[in-house]
Amino acid sequence: MTETTSNTPEEGEVILLNKPLIWTSFDAVNKIKKACKIKKIGHAGTLDPLATGLLILCTGKKTKEIDAYQGAEKEYTGKLVLGKTTPSVDLETTFNAEYPVDHITHELLNAAVQQLTGTIEQYPPIYSAVKMGGERLYKKARRGEAVEIKPRTVTVSVFEIDDTNFPEVSFRIVCSKGTYIRSLVRDVGMLVQSGAYMRELCRTRIGDFWLKDADEIDDFVKRKREELGIN
To answer: Do residues 100 and 63 share a domain?
Structure first.
């Protein structure tokens, strides 16, 4: 889906895409930029390669709205698995530890989630795009460098879980800008005296924009190229 205010490229548009698994947010921007011959384009809110879901792209003069979309409330669904950890807290890296899960009850899980709901102090994961000394943390992490990460204040307004398939736990989270879902997953594992990693993550909403209204990348490219008369 797109929102346009003019037919001219200069005025631009807001593009809603469903980012595929493995793609980086830059991959999506680059694909649209090259395939549709767009000069000015950017995205509002990075998604990790192993996450899927709503990615907002802005073109032309609409790029001035990027900051507003980045600051909007976000909603995610996903799955975490208790009893194992990875350095990246997802499946980008291999398992590095195992922990017991037999002691974890529904009540213990809910208590952990409650502690992570509201305005909280959160430490970003080491494998993240946070900059330290002008360099992304994930680059330092991949080199095995030790880093001291400072906490940030975020708001988690909704944190719902379904542990029917324990030790896999499904979740829905509504949160503020700058919230790391992998950090919440990591902290759930720690609070229940175990470990956890994220198996799946999908961003379903950014502000008033919903994933259900987004285009698949190939569908958007095909429609846009036809609209622009690009063979």
So the answer is: no
Distance in angstroms (rounded) separating the CA atoms of residues 202 and 210: 12
Tell me the mean pLDDT per 10 residues along the chain, length 231. Answer: 54 94 94 93 91 96 95 98 95 95 98 98 76 55 64 96 98 96 97 98 98 97 91 77
The pTM for the full model equals: 0.89
Rounded Cα–Cα distance for residues 118 and 205 (Å): 19
φ, ψ of residue 192 to 5 degrees: the values are -100, 20
User: How many domains are there within the chain?
Assistant: 2
- Together in a domain, 152 and 217: no
Beta bridge partners of 79: 170, 200
For residues 204 and 211, the answer to whether their CB atoms sit within 8 Å is yes
User: Cα 10–15–16 angle (5° rounding)?
Assistant: 170
Task: Give the Cα separation of 36 and 146 in Å (integer).
Answer: 42
Residue 222's domain spans which residues? 2-71+209-228
Residue 3: which of 217, 219, 222, 209 has the closest Cα? 209
Q: Which residues are catalytic?
A: 48
We report the CATH number of the domain holding residue 223 as 3.30.2350.10
167: preceding bond cis by omega (within 30 degrees): yes
Residue with token string 């809910």: 110
